[in-house]
Amino acid sequence: MSMPGTLIGAAGHDDAAVIAQLAKVLGSTHFRNSKRSQALLRFVVEAALTGDQNSLKERCVGIGVFGRDTAYDTAQDPVVRNAAIEVRKRLAQYYMEREHASELRIELPLGSYSPAFSTPHPTVEAPLVEPPKPAVVGRGHLVKWTLAVGCLLLAATATFFWAGRRTPASELEAFWEPIFRDRNPIQICIGQPSRLYRFTGPRTEQLNHTLASRAPAETDTAGLSIAGRELLWVAPEYLFLRDALSAFNVARWIQSKGRAFQLMSVSQTNYSRLRHAPLIAIGAFNNPWSLRVTSELRFLFDHRTEGGITYNYIHDRRNPNAVSWSVAQPADGAFSEDYAIVTRVFDPDTEKTVISAAGIETFGTLAASEFVTEPQYLGVALRAAPSDWRRRKVQFVLATSIIDGTPGPPRVLAAHFW
C-alpha cells in the first residue's frame, strides 16, 4: 500500500481506480477539445497498466499515437515531445481546480513518457486556482494570490538544500548553475495585474449584472457612469493564471534539484529581500523587476504608438528600427503569436544572479518558463553558443504560436552572449 501523497509507478496502483480517473480526466474541459492530448495520455496510461514499457519510448509513442513511420527521425520530428508538454500543462490545470484536489493523480514526469500515479495528501485542502469573482473588472484569467501562494507553499513545506558543489550534468543545469551555487532559498517573484478593480457600494450587483458578459450590449451601457468611489483596487490579491502556471513550472524544476525556494508576488517583493537571495522574475510588463533587469541590456521591453495603435514589443538595441516582435494593446485574444525574453545576468545592485522569464503577454511568459525548465529547448538554443557560454550573461528572444488559447512550444528567434 502506498503512503498518501507519494508517487507510485505502474506496479503499485489500483488498475480500476486509474482507469476510472483516466476517463474523468479525458472528459474534462482541459482535455476533451484536444484529440492529440487525449490520445497521448490514453496510450501511455494503458501501456503502463499492461506493463508494456517498450511502448513508452518516444519512437514507439510516435508510431502508436501519431502514425509516424517506424524509421522516422525523432530529433527532426518532435511531435511526441511537444504533445507531452501539452499533456503536462493540461494535467497541471486539471489538478489545480478545487473539485479535483482529492482525486488520484495521473502525472507525466519530465523527461519520461512513463506515467506516474499518486494518492492525494490528506492535509492539502487549499486549491491553487479559484475562478475570478464576477465582481472583478479586468482582462485575462486570474488566480487569487493568497490561495496560489498557500497551495504552492504547502508543496514546498519541506526544505531542500543543495548538497555540495558539482559539475552540471546537462546544459539546462549549467544554465541554472549560478543560481544553484547560491545557498540561499531562491526567490520566485510573480508579476501581477496593475489595473484590476472590483465594484463596491450599493450598485455592486447592478453593475456586475450589466457588465457580466465579455461584450455587454451597447443599449445596456449607454450613458453608464461609474464613480471612482464605486471601484475598489484589488490587483495585489490576484495573479494571471498563466503566470501562476509559469511559477509552478519553475518551482517544480527547482524542487527537483533539491533546492529551497520562496514564492512571492510583486507586491511582496522589495530590494532588501533580494539582497539576500537569487531571483527568478516571472512576467514582463506586470513585473517591474523583469523590466528593471533588462532595461540596460541588448533586448528589452518597450511600447510605441503607430497609426493610433499602441504596441508592446521587444526592442533590439543593435537593430533599433526592426520592430517585428510586437503585440497590439490591449490584447483582445485574437493575436496568434506572442514573444518573450529569457535573461540570465548578475545584478550588481543586489550582488545576486537573476533569471527573468518574461513574455509580452502571459502566453509568452508560460512558453519562457518551459524554455528554462525543459532541456530540449535550451539544447537547440545553444547549438551556436560560444564554448564558454556558461560563464557569460545570456539573453534569448523567444516566440510561441497561440492555438485555441494555448501557447505552443517556445522557438528561439535570437540569442546574445556577453
Describe this protein's structure:
With 418 residues, the chain is of the alpha+beta class. The protein folds into two domains: 7-118, no CATH class; 136-194 and 236-417, Chitobiase, domain 2. Helices cover 31% and strands 22% of the residues. It has helices at 15-26, 35-49, 58-66, 79-95, 145-155, 171-181, 204-210, 218-221, 241-256, 271-274, 288-294, 362-371, 375-381; strands at residues 7-8, 105-107, 116-118, 136-137, 142-144, 186-190, 197-199, 231-233, 238-240, 261-265, 279-282, 299-306, 309-316, 326-329, 337-347, 352-359, 394-403, 406-407, 411-417. Helix 1 (15-26) runs antiparallel to helix 2 and helix 2 (35-49) packs across helix 4 (79-95). The protein starts with 6 loop residues before the first strand and ends with a strand.
Give helix % range: 25-40%
Please tell me the CATH architecture of the largest domain by its name. 2-Layer Sandwich
Per CATH, the superfamily of the largest domain is: Chitobiase/beta-hexosaminidase domain 2-like
Radius of gyration: 22 Å
* Biggest sheet overview: 8 strands, mixed
Number of domain units? 2
Number of helices: 13
Broad CATH class of the largest domain: Alpha Beta
The parts where pLDDT drops under 50 for at least 5 residues are 1-11, 123-141, 153-168
Q: How many β strands by DSSP?
A: 19
CATH topology of the largest domain: Chitobiase, domain 2
Overall pLDDT, averaged?
Answer: 81
Terminal CA distance: 53 Å
Overall morphology:
globular
| Alpha-beta content class | alpha+beta
The share of residues in extended strands comes to: 15-25%
